[in-house]
Known about the structure:
Strand order of the largest sheet: 1-2
Oligomer: single chain
Radius of gyration: 24 Å
Strand content: 5-15%
Helix content: 55-70%
Amino acid sequence: MGAVARRRGTDASDLDPEDADSVAGRFGIARQMAMEIAYVNDEQGDWVIDPEATRDAVIRQIARGMDEQTARARVRKYREETNAERFVRVRAWVVSQIRDFDLGPVTSHHQTQTTINKGD
């Protein structure tokens, strides 16, 4: 929500992120959406696989006699997710939640009025 506030130029420094009602009101979204976004942001994805540490650990296991396929299947080293990684993850989740509704052709008020007037 901080990225949205920054993008909109909205001051969110006084918001309690645990107060879904105030967050929802400030951003013009449903309370349930505010709660779900907070959950995805805070409770999912805290740890990610660290490719460099995993690679090094696999190499160590191979050096100790484990075959490469087994080492790659069993060894995973994790690290905390960075803020940038969290932003990408949460943004991808938000995008995946957006539904495209077919509302028909979009026309301007002027086009609609012209069509009505031509019918008279």
